[in-house]
TrEMBL record:
Cofactors (names): FAD
Domain Acyl-CoA dehydrogenase/oxidase N-terminal: 3-117
Domain Acyl-CoA dehydrogenase/oxidase C-terminal positions: 228-376
Keyword Oxidoreductase assigned: yes
Statement: the UniProt record of this protein carries the keyword Transport: no
Family label: Belongs to the acyl-CoA dehydrogenase family.
Keywords: FAD, Flavoprotein, Oxidoreductase
Coiled-coil parts of chain: none
GO molecular function, one term: flavin adenine dinucleotide binding
Name by which UniProt lists this protein: Citronellyl-CoA dehydrogenase
Organism field: Ferrimonas sediminum
Length: 383
């Protein structure tokens, strides 16, 4: 699947991570955010925020295999928060805009997002509707030529630095899968307010907040695509989000295994290297094997996606497997670090905290299991 052009892209991303992200991670983790506008501007200048986006709006117009190569390499950052925020910009808040938005809307919001001149956020989850997307309560009521928006969104990545939010809101009283629309909402619109940054277990360098909408008025022309098609478009966005998230795990988990090999080789207990214990090196070999299975699954799903096939099942499986391995690999590796693994600034303990989100965000394990079961035709009958 990967050509010389893919390898050149990988090298560009690898160099960016090495020079522009990793030297600053410790500081960004302490302060609870990173300078998204500065980092995104540099990424935009390299063309890395619009790899698959239309060339007419500043993108590179490449197929999704290039985005997967990007996701793998950006995942080598020494934290999960910065790659997460970048993924929100490229694969969560802008795919529907790029695919279904009007030219005027794409000129105004997509082009500057690709250039790194605007920071994007995706507004789906609410305090009472995280996994159950159909249950959202935020309303966008028509008034003249505008929408008037009321409600709130929770756990919004990039919230405090975002220039616009791709918002999922109810725009009618129709059935729950037909009454939702995706609407671009500038964050400087009157009536928007933000909570303080949320104090999270992990992803510390990524700013996250609750967003409140109090009679926020935006033109109806800011609706992406057809009104009422928002739920369907959001489900399509989830496919890229889940593939990106699964791919982003790979290098991070690989680093955990490599760092653990190095540490246990040097760590001595009971007169021998910890790595020399069969239970340790067999376990690390097993974890590496599992990781290769995840990589193969991501690549298979990506190939199918490029061919225009429905990858709901494969993307859900990759998301599920990625989240499970994020828990299993980081937990197992941390154990072999002993007391050092319990230290806050240990790289494996940071991965342990950061990657725990992978079984929750973008569709909890239980949600994607339900999707897989539905595709397999084995959901129990209700009623």
């Amino acid at each position: 699947m990967f050509t010389q052009e893919h390898q050149q892209l990988r090298q560009t991303v690898r160099q960016f991570v090495t020079t522009e992200i990793n030297p600053h991670v410790a500081q960004w983790e302490r302060q609870g955010h990173f300078p998204a506008k500065t980092v995104f501007k540099k990424l935009g200048q390299l063309g890395l925020l619009g790899i698959t986006k239309p060339q007419a709006f500043g993108g590179l117009g490449l197929d999704y295999s290039y985005q997967i190569a990007f996701a793998e390499e950006i995942g080598a950052a020494h934290c999960g928060g910065v790659p997460l925020s970048i993924g929100v910009q490229t694969d969560m808040a802008t795919p529907a805009l790029a695919r279904f938005g009007s030219d005027a809307l794409r000129d105004q919001f997509l082009a500057p997002a690709i250039a790194g001149e605007m920071v994007a956020a995706i507004g789906v989850s609410e305090p009472g509707a995280g996994s159950d997307v159909a249950a959202i309560k935020t309303q966008a009521r028509k008034d003249g030529g505008d929408y008037v928006i009321n409600g709130s969104k929770m756990w919004i990545t990039n919230a405090t630095q975002a220039d616009f939010i791709c918002l999922l809101a109810n725009t009618s009283d129709d059935a729950v899968h037909k009454n939702k629309s995706l609407i671009i909402v500038p964050t400087n619109a009157p009536g928007i307010s933000f909570s303080d940054k949320l104090d999270k277990l992990g992803m510390r360098s990524s700013d996250t907040a609750q967003v409140f909408f109090d009679d926020v008025r935006v033109p109806q022309s800011y609706c992406i695509g057809q009104e009422g098609a928002g739920f369907t478009m959001q489900m399509l966005q989830f496919q890229e989000e889940r593939l990106f998230g699964a791919a982003m795990c790979i290098k991070s988990l690989e680093n955990c295994i490599t760092q653990t090999i190095d540490y246990t080789r040097d760590r001595t207990a009971f007169g021998q290297s910890v790595l020399d214990n069969q239970v340790v090196h067999f376990r690390l070999a097993e974890l590496q094997t599992e990781l290769e299975c995840l990589r193969a699954l991501v690549y298979q799903a990506t190939n199918s996606y490029i061919r225009g096939e429905d990858v709901t099942t494969l993307a859900s499986m990759a998301k599920l497997k990625g989240g499970r391995l994020c828990r299993e690999i980081t937990d197992s590796c941390l154990q072999y670090w002993g007391g050092m693994g319990f230290m806050w600034d240990n790289p494996v303990s940071r991965a342990y905290r950061d990657q725990r989100l992978c079984s929750i965000g973008g569709g909890a394990d239980e949600v994607v299991l339900g999707i897989i079961c539905k595709k397999m035709g084995i959901l129990p009958k209700r009623g």
